[in-house]
Amino acid sequence: MQIPRFPNDPCLLITDAGLGSLVLSAMAAEQKNKDATRLYPAWWTSQTDMDLRIPAIDRAIDMQADLLSLQVIRDHAGYPEEPLPRSKPASLGTHQTRMLLDAATLAIQLGLKRVLWPIRAIGPDDDANPAELIDHIAIAIDRTLLTARLATLDAQDQGGVEVTIETPIVDLTNHELSDLAADLNVPINSCWWTNQNLPDAQDHFNCWDHEPTTASMLEHRPQSASPATRS
Prior knowledge:
Structural class: alpha/beta
CATH class: Alpha Beta
């Protein structure tokens, strides 16, 4: 397995408090200049039941940030917007683009040159065929390239820095991510899906409980934490 490259310079890390986000957060916590890195709360895989998801995701992000000594941004978040009365919600792709543009614009304002998005082509079931995976990966990368370019163009008039959006774990399988989580000894019980009363949480929990390395971590490493540092 090729270990994802993590930038040495500080970054804005989009996080949903899932395992992929936690792995990248743990890698960020190992950097010398981690104090400048910021966690950007977000959700990009669905647009339903957000009234239930958002409070739980926020709590999980706070726990992970506290455990890893990272700072959370709270005046911006990449959660799906409520549709206007008698209007249809935006597509999931539209939401992802809006989220990335907000994150990239915020990174520029903070003087950060990199945004990391822990999207993965594979879901909890890990049953997509190779052609679908290639398509999902290509769409994710195209979306980041185009959105970063747009954010940079808008920032040039204000002397802003050029920003890039990276997807370092987009092609990792569940088994590879599980092994990486074990190598980093991440606090896996801080993930949002350990609250199995939440929508889709059981599917995510079952996914990682079926992987030998993360199953052992779930069984033997409970975590607790106080609220995180916010900025």
